[in-house]
Design a protein that fits this description.
The chain is α/β, with parallel strands linked by helices and about 300 residues long. The chain contains 14 helices and twelve strands.
């Protein structure tokens, strides 16, 4: 668990993070979102002391990070940045092995961990272990960057705009893969993004920041349905709000008894996907794989926030 208490950072007369307090529970993803200059990256970097706070406290599992030597702290915390940050003169395997090597793991254990992570990220070790970063696609480089951040099995992973350099198709897949991987490993994750869509897609909690201050912190549905300030409301985007609400639930949450003609939609598909299918195909009812239906009327009700996505 991460507890941030009254954290402030000033540079001379400029306050870039202003008295921020929030808690990230173990195993959750917290998304820090805001415009450029909002203080979100500085807040992230104060967690692993890449930036030292002017005042306030960061506790990880109850331990004040100020009591831990910075280099020791950073070896315990995974860190991934935009553009992957791979060492260009080192192979994929050597990049992933960076922190375990610093921690003096046995060579056999390091090699096994590198191969384990490559397989986890669907990169064949025999094919990719000895490649150089410039020989990889952008998506592959990003996966190796995240693998490196996870190499020493950190319980906490910090990510600063990790998908910002990826094209939309690869970015969506990378987000999906990260969410699945985080659920599998149970890693606590704090991610910085300027993209509310990404924050909604990934975050169990969303922290909205502006001019160094924390304006609102809560689950995505709360941010979308009850924005605390006009700035939060503007960041959400009134036109996008219904679709973002639908992206939070799956067809399985809304399926009801019945039958309908046409191709069936998977129960794990988002309600946003179901609405798109209804509108694209002109159907009022969609059959669901395994039985049941989802209706356009109910989807519209959920898009307004008037009806919870439950059966």
């Amino acid at each position: 668990m991460i507890e941030i208490r009254n954290l402030t950072k000033r540079y001379d007369e400029t306050t870039v993070v202003d008295d921020v307090s929030l808690t990230v529970e173990t195993g959750q993803i917290a998304a820090l979102v805001g415009t450029s200059g909002s203080g979100k990256t500085t807040l992230l970097r104060m967690i692993n002391r890449l930036v030292e706070p002017t005042s306030g406290t960061v506790l990880i599992d109850g331990t004040d990070t100020a009591t831990i030597a910075p280099h020791i702290l950073r070896r315990r915390i995974g860190y991934a940045i935009q553009g992957h940050g791979l060492f260009p003169h080192r192979t994929v395997g050597q990049n992933i092995a960076t922190v375990p090597t610093l921690l003096k793991w046995p060579e056999a254990e390091i090699r096994a961990r590198v191969d384990e992570l490559l397989e986890l990220f669907q990169l064949d070790p025999a094919q990719f272990r000895d490649r150089m970063p410039h020989e990889l696609s952008g998506g592959q480089q990003q996966r190796v960057g995240v693998a490196r951040a996870l190499a020493a099995r950190p319980e906490l992973l910090l990510m600063d705009e990790p998908f910002g350099a990826l094209d939309p198709v690869i970015r969506a897949k990378a987000q999906e893969d990260l969410r699945a991987l985080q659920r599998q490993l149970g890693t606590t994750l704090v991610i910085v993004t300027h993209d509310m869509e990404e924050a909604v897609a990934l975050g169990d909690r969303i922290a909205v920041m502006d001019k160094g201050r924390l304006l609102q912190y809560g689950p995505p549905d709360e941010i979308l349905t009850a924005p605390a300030t006009p700035f939060v409301q503007a960041l959400i985007g009134e036109g996008e709000r219904p679709f973002r609400l639908l992206s939070l639930s799956t067809v399985a949450d809304l399926v009801q008894p019945g039958e309908a003609p046409g191709p069936a939609i998977p129960p794990e598909a988002s309600l946003r996907d179901a609405l798109a299918e209804c509108l694209w195909s002109g159907r009022e009812l969609l059959p669901v794989e395994g039985g049941g239906i989802v209706t356009l009327a109910r989807l519209r009700e959920c898009a307004t926030g008037a009806g919870a996505a439950t059966t």
